[in-house]
Amino acid sequence: MTDLRKMFVSMLFMIASVQSACTLSAQTLQQAPGFYRATLGSFAFTALSDGTAPRDMAKILSKPDVAALQYDSDHEKETIASSINAYVINTGSHWVLIDTGAGELFGATSGKLIVNMKASGIDPKQIDTVLLTHIHADHSGGLTIGGIMQFPNATVYVDKRDVDSFVNRSVTPSDSPDLRRIVAQSQATVGPYLRAGKIVFITHDGQIIPGIESRSQPGHTPGHTAYIVESTGHKMLFWGDIVHAAEVQFARPDITVQYDIDPSEAAIQRLREFQFAADSGMVVASDHISFPGLGHVRKLATGYAWLPVPYSASVIEIDPE
Questions:
Q1: Residues 6+ apart with CB under 8 A from 79
Q2: 181-187 LR contacts (CB < 8 Å, sep 24+)
Q3: What is the 8-class DSSP label of residue 216?
Q4: What's the rounded mean pLDDT across residues 40-57?
Q5: Percent helix, strand and coil across the chain, each to the nearest 5
Q6: What pLDDT, on a 0 to 100 scale, did the predictor assign at position 7?
Q7: DSSP string, 123-145
Q8: Distance CA 89, CA 102 (A)
Q9: Is 305 helix (H, G, I), strand (E, B) or coil?
């Protein structure tokens, strides 16, 4: 082989290597679409990932020393990628979405709900019922993106206390920057549905639609709400923001986060829901536990433990006989 030919072959090899590296880099920077299928009795269930939000738990938890110790002992960094999960239930009569992710409010690591919903085979226009656990950016932010309602055929159910606290209010200069931001975001994302007459206020515990009932748990926000979904005797609990830091709060339910409107009440409700989930044996869907956020709660001698539902390559059956 001549020197010129050797040089030509070497150049081709280098070009191929660069192309391969670029392709590999593009591939490894993206995860697969985030959805996970299951059944609950006769209902079809799909967990959807809206992405993640970086959170320094030692800064946002009420006892940073406990948080730092726990994350260090678990060999995790204190800044973790907190999952943002949402859930779709097809009851046969209704397509129900529980929480909507952050939309465009939390940056590039989130706002993936619509993409993942479509990848799972669900058209956002199919959603006829949206249940909000509460009004906060990472739960109601995905309702409206760029001024466009993402679920134009849906009726949105939410506790009236949250609407009054974050949508139907005027801010004043004396309000905190955080509150002014929450109100502005809520008016931009929830507001269009309110003006269109697509909001139904939840004012008491009870049935929302057949198979789904609400369960008030104020504290994190004034109208924070859980939902119990039941089909043919099979039940599942969707508890919203009862947990932000699973590694800490199951062992120490008294530890709160800076986002809690009423920290003492939030801690009371967390303990109440932990005990309820442990006593009932229901599978829990949790918005901020690592995707898909499904598991059971076990009572320990002190505190509680989270037992994730094992991953399955096929469609799982929640609460099997």
A1: 54, 55, 56, 57
A2: 182/135, 182/136, 182/137, 185/105, 185/137, 185/141, 186/135, 186/140
A3: E
A4: 95
A5: 35, 30, 40
A6: 58
A7: -GGG--EEE-S--SHHHHGGGEE
A8: 19
A9: strand
Q: Rounded distance, CA 203 to CA 314, Å?
A: 39
Average pLDDT, the chain: 91
For the chain, what is the radius of gyration of the CA atoms? Answer: 22
pTM: 0.89
Whether cis (ω within 30° of 0) applies to the bond prior to 292 is yes
Residue 44: other Cβ atoms inside 10 A: 17
Identify any residues that bridge with 4 across adjacent strands, giving them in sequence order: none
Indicate the DSSP class of residue 110.
Answer: B
Burial class, 175, CB count within 10 angstroms (exposed 0-12 / middle 13-18 / buried 19+): middle
Q: ∠ CA 103-153-226 to the nearest 5 degrees?
A: 60
> Given strand 316-318, what is the order of strands in its sheet?
199-202, 155-159, 129-131, 95-98, 79-90, 43-56, 35-40, 316-318
List the alpha helices (DSSP H) in the chain.
3-28, 57-60, 64-73, 113-119, 137-140, 160-166, 177-189, 191-195, 246-249, 263-280
Pairing mode, strands 155-159 and 144-145: unpaired
CB 288 within 8 A of CB 241: yes
DSSP string, 227-260: EEEEETTEEEEE-GGG-S-HHHHTT-TT--BTT-
Whether 300 has a pLDDT exceeding 60, the answer reads: yes
| Residue 70, token pair as written in the block | 């726990």
pLDDT higher than 80, residue 47: yes
Cβ atoms of 47 and 87 within 8 Å: the answer is yes
3-state SS assignment for residue 97: strand
CA distance readout (Å), 16 to 21, 22, 23, 311: 9, 10, 10, 38
Whole-number pLDDT of residue 105: 96
